[in-house]
TrEMBL record:
Record protein name field: Arsenite methyltransferase
Keyword Transferase: yes
Domain spans labelled Methyltransferase: 92-244
Any one GO molecular function term: arsenite methyltransferase activity
Family: Belongs to the methyltransferase superfamily. Arsenite methyltransferase family.
Keyword match 4Fe-4S: no
Pfam families for this protein: Methyltransf_31
Source organism: Rhodosorus marinus
Length: 365
């Protein structure tokens, strides 16, 4: 993506993320954020108020998550506005940051998965959402039988995590559910996510993407923005942006159509949308292309939430006990991350190149 393809507020640099005043008749970044706060603070009270398939219903959760979701307070669950399930495997003892944590629904599920020795931090800019999440923090700790809560919520902007005192390399995983599209400065959000991740960590998140670039004149419509439509990136522009900030090899975990009510569809001139979960590893020696070095891995079946099969991404589904060839990038992601102890690795020192990895294909969603 080149700068000229981005609308003015989307072009705002990280350090000017709060700058007021648009220069091209478009809303400033601050005005866009105020619209979104109004939408999630006042206009949308429950999922039923949304005009899209924005909300991921609990039927979509994997079976191991359903009982954990059932532990979350009804009032918090009623304000869950995520577009998918964005909780990855292997979270025991990890530190997890949730960008745009809303009422805290995902955080309270993750709290149970990281356990009492793990840590969960949620960041959201909307007062009422943060207040609700805070109101239930100790309530959930008591419910989970924790001596002390492992969840903290900060009111603030996901473009400016440094202002919240969130240090470099201080998280194992960054999650986010239906939020990046709402930000007027997506590059700042991804740059900050990359900064706070430890090496070997990953951003695992669900969001809405457009199948073609959304016209600028729709981006300031507060309803289309609030419904996670008009701020959505064209997916190929997202890939470019992710690579630019250091996430060299974005992986699609799953993707499905994102349905918009007819009343909004008329304005969209045929643009279609998808809800997609990406995983972006912060591993320094990944390549932009998928290459074959004759390496293979065997999944041990040792992850409690995936005993028979681990869906790592759409192209890498590991059956327990099977030795399967992988690209050097996949090999490195698994070996550098919290997945390491769950795999056997073959060909660690392989230097012989066999050309492009056979299953490599262009990323599409
Ligand atoms: C669609 S809701 C999703 C909330 C939550 N992730 C969930 O799954 O229920 C979007 C949330 O992102 C927050 N948000 C949007 N843009 C933000 C920004 N730039 N900084 C902080 N929070 C933001 C909103 O306040 C809102 O609570």
């Amino acid at each position: 993506m080149v700068a000229s393809q981005l609308s003015q507020p989307e072009r705002t640099s990280r350090h000017a993320a709060g700058a007021k005043g648009a220069t091209n008749g478009r809303k400033s970044a601050d005005e866009v954020r105020e619209d979104v706060k109004e939408y999630y603070g006042r206009i949308i009270q429950t999922k039923e108020d949304l005009q899209t398939s924005a909300c991921c219903t609990e039927e979509k959760f994997p079976s191991y998550v359903k009982p954990l979701a059932g532990m979350v307070a009804d009032e918090v669950a009623s304000k869950f506005f995520g577009c998918d399930f964005c909780v990855p495997n292997v979270l025991e003892n990890t530190s997890v940051l949730d960008l745009g944590s809303g009422s805290g629904f995902d955080c309270f599920i993750i709290s149970q998965l990281v356990g009492e020795t793990g840590r969960v931090v949620g960041v959201d800019m909307t007062d009422s959402q943060v207040e609700l999440a805070n109101k239930y923090t100790q309530w959930h700790a008591d419910r989970f039988g924790f001596e002390k809560s492992n969840v903290t919520f900060h009111k603030g902007y996901i473009e400016k995590l440094d202002e919240l005192g969130l240090d470099d390399a201080s998280f194992d995983v960054v999650v986010s559910n239906c939020v990046l599209n709402l930000s007027p400065d997506k590059e700042a959000v991804l740059t900050e996510a990359y900064r706070v991740l430890r090496t070997g960590g990953e951003m695992y998140f669900s969001d809405v993407y457009a199948l073609r670039r959304v016209p600028d004149n729709l981006k300031d419509d507060p309803v289309l923005r609030g419904e996670c439509i008009s701020g959505a990136l064209y997916w190929n522009d997202f890939i470019t942006l992710a690579r630019k900030v250091g996430f060299t090899d974005p992986r699609v975990v799953q993707s499905e159509p994102y349905f918009v009510d007819d009343s909004l569809m008329d304005k969209l001139d045929g643009t279609e949308f998808v809800s997609t979960t990406f995983r972006l590893f912060k591993v320094s020696n990944l390549e932009a292309t998928i290459e074959d070095y004759g390496q293979a891995v065997k999944y041990k079946g040792s992850i409690f939430s995936a005993p028979a099969q681990l869906v790592f991404d759409r192209d890498n589904i590991f059956e327990a006990g099977a030795v399967v060839p992988v690209s050097r990038n996949t090999f490195r992601m698994l070996r550098a991350s919290r997945f390491r102890s769950h795999f056997d690795f073959y060909g660690c020192c392989s230097k012989k190149h066999f050309g492009p990895f056979p299953r490599s294909q262009p990323i599409t969603i």
